[in-house]
Amino acid sequence: MAVSAQPLPVTETAVPAGRDMPRSVSVLIFARDRGIFVLWALIIGVFSFWCAPYFATLDNAMLIANAAALTAIFAAGVGFGVMTGVLDLSLPGTAAFAACVTGWLMTHGQPVWLSLAAGLACGVLVGLANGLIALRGFNPIIVTIGSLSALSGLAAVIAGGYTFPGLRQLQFMGTERYFGVPAPVYIVAALFGVGTLFLTRTRDGIRLMAVGGNSEAVRRSGIHADRYRVLGFVLSGLCAALGGLVTTAVTTEATPEASPGIIFSALTAVALAGVALTGGRGSLPRVLVGALILATIANGLTIRGVQPYWATVVTGLLLLTSLGLERVIQRGVSNRLMSVANLSVHNRSV
């Protein structure tokens, strides 16, 4: 009996993998999933030549890694949320709130470990509150904007409108270097290592990604999708709190100011990494490289004596270009997979 030739879903799994995958599709998928690593290598090559001999040195590499650390932490928070299908805009407020809670406890004689634990707990609680409110049917973007405003106000209330200066007890995770490597770099390495293992090697991490891709399909399969949406908010809030604490450690003061530049830089890194804002697709290593690209561009232009605002211009143009290429590549992959899938069904029906 002939099989009706129905179009298969446009995914990489709709066609044979490995050697049977058409070469054109394999090239496009490589460009989509690994193109950001090639781009970073090209940027490093250009600046190594243009800024010789100052750019391609170990000391400068440490400067770039340290400069990228804070952006990377907040970008991880945005990435966790986006991969789950939500965009958390409350990160700057969460960071300021966690920092001020930690600063208040430390200036009132509490141990460093307890103060840090309380700051991280604030991030978890904020993420949990955002997630539970969003589950009531409210738009997550509106919810997190409201949280951003409320948390910024609470941080100012805790700090009395000022800052908590002189928090030198946190230098061990801010300005200290271990074996020549800045402390924030170790924190970023641990965060992205654990986060990548969680998303790719654990059942909950894989389900979290699946919820971002198609929450209704996950729900119909018997998985509690809402639980994983809340988990995405919690992980985002935890990363925001960690970013606020590392910022406090670097500057040795806790400030209630919720800088909008935090979310801009984090979103830029995530977008450069090709993480789908609709959820379900992305990887933390690419997000990390996105943050490193931003720091590399700023560092190279600074070495050449170019005004800092040009780094913003270059980054914006690079972002627009990458978004355009992402769209073209994804469309090419979908069209070719559709053609191959339909051809495969046709051959089986003959």
TrEMBL record:
Main subcellular location: membrane
Residues passing through the membrane, by range: 36-56, 62-82, 112-135, 142-163, 183-200, 230-250, 262-280, 287-303, 309-329
Membrane topology term: Multi-pass membrane protein
Keyword check for Cell inner membrane: yes
This protein's record includes keyword Membrane: yes
Compartments in which it is found: Cell membrane
A GO cellular-component term linked to this record: plasma membrane
Record GO terms (molecular function): transmembrane transporter activity
Keywords assigned by UniProt, alphabetized: Cell inner membrane, Cell membrane, Membrane, Transmembrane, Transmembrane helix, Transport
Domain of life: Bacteria
Protein name, entry field: Ribose transport system permease protein
Origin species: Paractinoplanes atraurantiacus
